[in-house]
Amino acid sequence: VAENARQVLEPAIATLTGRIAAVIGVAKAHPGGEKTRTAATKESNPAETAGTSAACPITFTMTAPLSKCDLTKIGGTPAAELSAELHAKRHVKLLPDNFFEPVALKVRALTKGTAATASNIGTNDNGHCHGNAAAGVLTSETNVLTAYITAEPGATQTATKQEHTKAAGNGGTCKDDNDDSSETKPTLKHTLHVICKARKFQETQQTRTTSEEGPTLASDGDMQNIARFLLFSPAEIAAIPVPEQATKIQEKIKSVYGDKNGEFKKNYLQPLQEKQLTFKLGLNQESKSINAIAQGSDAEIVLSYFLGQQYDRNQRKRANTTSPTKEEKTDAADKTGENKKEGDNKKTDS
């Protein structure tokens, strides 16, 4: 079950996380309204035009349409106040794919008077080129050349209702994915697909078994995962073809703990629950059953104690295999001395 969850939910999490990051990044980079504008010195007879003409270079700084994003809310509602409706809904609001494309910009170029003559638009302030007859007030100036720019994203910045699961009449199946789908390319189509997959996985989760009988537990996925590590070595599992592993694990469970009703409880569950473990909780020495430890509030502390004990054993074992202990060195020295003495005696005899 855990492995199935990883395979189904990880792509959904990665895709949605990537899409959130992309939406925030693009929204902050998209042009919003005009923030500031500056006009450079007018140009006489620019190359783009023929004959006597003039150009007014204008630079615009734009605002971002999204100033901040509150990730604690969904649709304006705090996420903690929302509940999952796995069966009732098959739509989600998402931005279209062209939200991630450059926004179209509309420029309005305005001219007034004899603006084609560069000498008549020599003043550039407030982001316009003009003749300074009225202190740059465009409605009163005689000669003006200027432009306005407006971002026109259309509907690309509006999330719309999108179907992620086909209607019940089609079996409630997921919509097709992109041919080149990837979590790093969270398109609308791919996002809808992984949402559906994650939703269907949650819907199909089976209730954990509470049976204490061997035949039932042997076919339980969680029990099989436990038995995989308890009853097999890594080499043994690797030697079994993958399609046959589930069957072999079930057979092993039955052979070790019993195949008849009552045997599994007697041979496995009761000893497991009743076995007493001694451990330290802080400075105090404790002795409790595994069942009591698992139900207690200090289960994680107790587990860390045993993990630490095992780590210490592994470290000492590794040290012993790499370098001789003090006792081993002494024994080796004694044997060397004995061998030397024996050799000297042989020389004397000869």
Automatic annotation (TrEMBL):
Amino acid composition bias (Polar residues), ranges on this chain: 38-51
Family annotation (SUPFAM superfamilies): Variant surface glycoprotein (N-terminal domain) (SSF58087)
Biased composition annotated in UniProt, kind: Basic and acidic residues: 325-350
Coiled-coil annotated residue ranges, if any: none
The protein's name in its UniProt record: Variant surface glycoprotein 3290
Organism: Trypanosoma brucei
Region (Disordered): 31-51, 156-186, 312-350
